[in-house]
Design a protein that fits this description.
about 75% helix; 19 helices; Growth Hormone, Chain: A; mainly alpha
Amino acid sequence: MSTSPQPTAVPPSPVARRGLHLATFSSLRYRDFRFLLGVTFFTSAGTWLQQVTFGWLVFEITESPLITGAALGATSLPYLFLGPVVGVVIDRVDRRLILILNHVVLAVTTTAFAVLVATGLVERWWDPQAPWTAWPFFAFALAYGAAWSVGNPVRHALIATVVPRAALLNAISLNSATFNAARIIGPAIGGLLIASFGPATNFFLQAVMNLLLVAVVVPMRTPHVAVRHGGQEKPSFFADFRAGVGYIFQHPPLPLLLLLAFVPSFFMWPFVQGLMPVFAKEAVETDARGLGLLLASAGVGSLFGVLALASVGEVRRKGALLLSFALFSSLGIVVFSQTSSLPVSAATLAVLGGTQMMYLAFSNTLVQTITADEYRGRVLSLYMLEHGFASAGSFMAGALADRYGSPAAILLAGLAAGTFLGFVSLRFRHLWRLDL
């Protein structure tokens, strides 16, 4: 296995030298990691704000679970086409510059859609007898998804650049905790703003947040990947791509970890988060405020889960924990599908959110620990290719909910995920012993 060069990390800040020693927050001693966490928080808060608003808006106008699920899933579709390309670019271009341009594009895209919503054009164009008139929803979802499919792997690739290798699990856990803190705040505020001011306000707010984030990214110091070639001529774009794919298959745990990453994207997120606007109305019989509370509850559980993970430091038998949390998540989906009251549904989602995020944190840590830094962008972009399959999962979720109802669709997804994970657990038993 090739060894990874030690990531460039900024020396501890004066605050850290004065004694910031709590294990849970040990990665905060690195200046640029603090900047990165700020970007993660506000980007994620804006995205969750947009997700709850977008899902509510589509279902409110179309009253179609199929269109709602497909529109939410369309945000993930660009990963399938852009993921491999983005990975090569991340390893060849200044990642900080990519992130700055990404937030500008997100701000422009969200502003354009906010104008369409505020002027009522989206609602006036919709005709129940002509499903293709839902095209503005899909156009926005694809444009936003394209920008997100670039920014997300860049932020993840930067983690290992701004902290040393020994702090990687803690940094990834804190990054996940930040994402989930935003997951609590974003939907809760989103539901209140929808009820108070209408959905257009949320899209305008997200656009402003993306513009402000440019000011956070600018002072970050990150190494320019071009210096890694030592002045020699760079390989061609396609040669870099082939090298990235070859690197994955030369390191046996990586293909299996990439395969397991498809489970939450295909069976979990599309059926739980994707169908949440439908489930909230059909099963729980609540409004936009209740929808925001349900999504925020999942964020609460996720936040506590990854904070607990950050507190324990380095752990052994990561493979066993990875499979255990994945199986518990499948069980949680089955239980959630049978709930019908807001408090019980919210409590179940909190537990489910915790197990899902701990699974994702272990998976991400294993992938990044195995991967050398010069291949990190390509491997992570292929690892995140599973986001693209969430669009297929969302379409299936919408179709099943349209025919059988959202509770039955979520139940089938949980059973399917558990069956697949059970097969992997028995077929690849060495994964239980995987530790790095």
